[in-house]
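sry for the spam today, last one i promise. struct tokens for design, 394 residues
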């Protein structure tokens, strides 16, 4: 008794990263923390840029009355306007403050969006590999996740998406740059995806949202412009946060941006604002809203993550690991040298290297490592990777 059977089952299903965390603690106690190489967590390594601290101090020293009170549930108008201005520059589209809702991170942004659009039993198409929490977000808001697949380069498989869409589909959720693969969905991919969605809308007489989860948008290792969903599908929404691009994961600040070309966006924004309030988020944190309003053009030093990506990608592929080079985010998703990815991550663990099996991302046969760790940890993990590969090959 106590907790529900459903929650018990979900906790069991989602326990990979938590299990790794516990393993890391146990291994550190046994072998010494300096001998354990934990690449299982996506906790941003880089500290917020200096501008963050400047703004924080400015607000602390110059506290206007009401700084800590409630504000409109969608956020401070000046913050929403600042975010809209940044997006208008980045996309060339006419974003206004009213198209933005401030949220407690991307996780909350996705939950309130699903709450606003899903009736019980409605379906959301996810594309594997995907961030493990998605299935729970959809389920918590009464929906049913339906999983489509990707090709070997981690670009989505359009045939699989076409087959996954039904008359109950209310949204297709994408994530680019992708956790866990680091893939960035190209402009051509987004155009094809929008085509598949629009063809299904016509076939079923329904409306389908394209939701893009973009917390890694500013962590890219290519000079190409970021391919946005907005030009491809009018019913499109971005959910994102400053957890990674400003290193503020613990502060819970993000936003939803609705395509300015979506004609029913007024009602959508009202629904999302209502969901933000009644799911108990109420509003995004006040001080963080004031700070990020000033930091829309600021990002952590991406070159540090790029160096780590280059280092670990080059080392692992030289050893013989098969891997698609990540173009963004701070993860790599190599193929497991053993058919059973869980067996392989246990083998790595015996070498004191902690990673997460692909099954945790809806894609068995792979494993994820996070390279947002100190260089010492990446370097220290290499002998373990080499030994595990040799053992796996027999
Ligand atoms: C793909 C993806 N989406 C959403 C989140 C949630 O991030 P947050 O709620 O901190 O913005 C994460 C966190 O790791 C993520 O990797």
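last one done:
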């Amino acid at each position: 008794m106590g907790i529900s059977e459903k929650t018990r089952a979900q906790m069991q299903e989602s326990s990979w990263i938590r299990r790794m965390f516990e393993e890391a603690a146990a291994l550190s106690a046994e072998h010494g923390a300096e001998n354990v190489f934990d690449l299982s967590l996506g906790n941003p390594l880089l500290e917020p840029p200096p501008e963050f601290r400047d703004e924080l101090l400015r607000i602390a020293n110059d506290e206007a009355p009401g700084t800590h009170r409630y504000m409109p549930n969608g956020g401070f108008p000046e913050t929403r306007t600042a975010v809209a201005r940044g997006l208008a520059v980045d996309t060339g589209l006419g974003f206004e403050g009213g198209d933005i809702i401030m949220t407690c991170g991307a996780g909350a942004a996705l939950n309130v969006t699903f709450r606003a659009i899903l009736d019980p039993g409605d379906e959301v198409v996810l594309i594997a590999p995907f961030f493990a929490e998605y299935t729970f977000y959809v389920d918590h808001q009464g929906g049913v996740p339906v999983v489509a697949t990707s090709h070997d380069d981690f670009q989505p498989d359009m045939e699989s998406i076409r087959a996954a869409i039904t008359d109950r589909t209310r949204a297709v959720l994408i994530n680019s740059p992708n956790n866990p693969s680091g893939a960035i969905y190209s402009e051509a991919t987004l155009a094809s995806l929008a085509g598949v969605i629009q063809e299904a809308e016509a076939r079923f007489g329904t409306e389908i949202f394209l939701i893009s989860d973009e917390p890694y948008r500013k962590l890219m290792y290519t000079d190409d412009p970021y391919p946005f969903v907005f030009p491809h599908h009018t019913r499109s929404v971005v959910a994102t946060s400053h957890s990674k691009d400003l290193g503020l994961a613990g502060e819970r600040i993000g936003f939803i941006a609705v395509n300015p070309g979506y004609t029913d966006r007024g009602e959508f924004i009202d629904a999302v604002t209502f969901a933000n309030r009644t799911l108990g988020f109420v509003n995004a944190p006040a001080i963080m809203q004031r700070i990020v309003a000033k930091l829309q053009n600021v990002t952590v030093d991406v070159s540090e993550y790029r160096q780590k990506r280059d280092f670990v990608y080059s080392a692992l592929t030289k050893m013989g690991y098969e891997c698609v080079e990540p173009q963004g985010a701070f993860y790599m998703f190599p193929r497991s040298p053993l058919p059973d990815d869980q067996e392989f991550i246990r083998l790595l663990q015996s070498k004191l290297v902690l990673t997460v099996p692909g099954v945790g991302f809806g894609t068995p046969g792979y494993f994820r490592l996070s390279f947002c760790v100190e260089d010492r940890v990446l370097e220290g993990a290499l002998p373990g990777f080499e030994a595990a590969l040799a053992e796996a090959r027999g």
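Residues 42, 105-107, 131, 175, 179, 213, 215, 241, 243, 249, 254 surround pyridoxal-5'-phosphate (CB under 6 Å). ok im logging off now
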